[in-house]
Amino acid sequence: MPTPTAPGPPVEALLIATLEADSNGCVYAGAGDDRVALVWPQGYTVSGTLESFTVHDANGDAVATSGVDVNIGGGGGGP
User: Fold this and answer.
1) Residue 26 reports pLDDT greater than 60
2) Where does residue 44 rank: exposed (0-12), middle (13-18), buried (19+ CB within 10 A)?
């Protein structure tokens, strides 16, 4: 899968976590005992099962897979 990059200043926060799903099918980022709720852009979908799934962007391209570490940046900002 491609590694997305964003233009602009570097982010101030970085979460390295594994995508998991709860019994309701909600995909979250898990790091140890911690869970972080994720809000996906409009048009994103998930296919597969609770144990093995893929997240797709609005074009249907795979952007993330369960069980694989993801790097999620945030914070910062600019004009």
Assistant:
1) yes
2) middle
Closest CA to 2 of 53, 63, 70, 69: 63
Token pair listed for 40 = 């996906």
How far is the first Cα of the chain from the last one, in angstroms, to the nearest whole number? Answer: 31
How far is the C-alpha of 5 from the C-alpha of 34, rounded, in Å? 26
- Provide the whole-model pTM: 0.70
- Cα 18 to its chain centre, rounded Å, is 8
HSE-up (13 A, CA, CB side) for residue 17: 20
